[in-house]
UniProtKB/TrEMBL annotation:
It is an enzyme of class 2 (transferase). This is RBR-type E3 ubiquitin transferase. Its EC number is 2.3.2.31. Residues 16-239, 20-66 form the RING-type domain.
């Protein structure tokens, strides 16, 4: 007859837990994902949210390791991203990659017409920066490769027009200003990051530099807390909200400033009374430090 030997609980096999650098939680290995290029390990949920956020922001086409101290500066491969995100999100990621490739390719450019958005081929020359005639194969529009305005043989490009690298599909030059209002993609007037507007109001805030501006005329709205910009001029009544919601917004803004002012007004007598006491205590403490030690 044999008896089973008692085994202490600390000798029982326990699955090791791995710490996630993003949420600082500990999870079993099957709930973790390892980045192939740098071998950094994160919980799958955190890494998925990180990847989806970067794709929605549209700021990066090469998604780097979330660890800022990653020694290998690794990047996620396309097959790794595809396993984490939904099909629609992956299509957006590939679209951003394609737009970036065209932007960096000296032999390709976007048609400046917002209704076309086709990719046009440029002729290979020794000096790619020199203006050349480009004809869109889709809409037959003829434009300058450097400034995107209508082709101007024998004339220099206008200085007000942005360079070739500043265009993505849906953006126009100043020559096509009338069609630019409804362009789906524009650049932030401050940091020049590309911004896509699907829907919503015309008051935009750049997620990169936090600059607020009007989508239609690109005028700054950083100091326009009451949105008075949409009461006059070419952008009148183009905010995208009802008049009642605008009035309610302005009431909230005025109420916040009035509340701070009232709080400061009420607290100012107490601050004035407390100032001498604080200064007196500080003087006593400094005087006590200067006294010689007893012998």
């Amino acid at each position: 007859m044999t008896t089973a030997r008692y085994r202490p609980t600390w000798e029982l096999a326990v699955d090791p837990l791995v710490s996630c650098k993003l949420c600082l939680g500990e999870f079993p290995l099957e709930q973790m994902t390892t980045i192939t290029q740098c071998q950094c390990v994160f919980c799958t949920l955190c890494l998925k949210q990180y990847v989806e956020l970067l794709i929605k922001e549209g700021l990066e086409t090469a998604i780097s390791c979330p660890d800022s101290a990653c020694p290998k500066r690794g990047h996620l491969q396309e097959n790794e991203i595809e396993c984490m995100v939904a099909t629609e999100m992956m299509q957006r990621y590939k679209k951003l990659q394609f737009e970036r490739e065209v932007l960096l390719d000296p032999c390709r450019t976007w048609c400046p017409s917002s209704s076309c958005q086709a990719v046009c081929q440029l002729k290979e020359t020794d000096s790619p920066a020199l203006p050349q005639l480009v004809q869109c194969a889709v809409c037959a529009l003829e434009f300058c490769s450097a400034c995107k305005a209508a082709w101007h043989p024998g004339q220099a490009c206008q200085e007000s027009n942005p360079p070739i690298a500043s265009f993505l599909p849906g953006e126009n030059s100043s020559f096509y200003k009338n069609e630019e209002d409804d362009a789906p993609i524009k650049r932030c007037p401050k940091c020049k990051v590309y911004i896509e507007r699907d829907e919503g109001c015309a008051q935009m805030m750049c997620k990169n530099c936090k600059h607020a501006f009007c989508w239609y005329c690109l005028e700054s709205l950083d100091d326009d807390f009451l949105l008075i910009h949409y009461d006059k001029g070419p952008c009148r009544n183009k905010l995208g909200h009802s008049r009642a919601s605008v009035i309610w917004h302005r009431t909230q803004v005025v109420g916040i400033f009035a509340g701070f002012g009232l709080l400061l007004l009420v607290a100012s007598p107490f601050l004035l009374l407390a100032t001498p006491i604080v200064l007196c205590c500080k003087c006593k403490c400094s005087k006590g430090d200067d006294d010689p030690l007893p012998t």
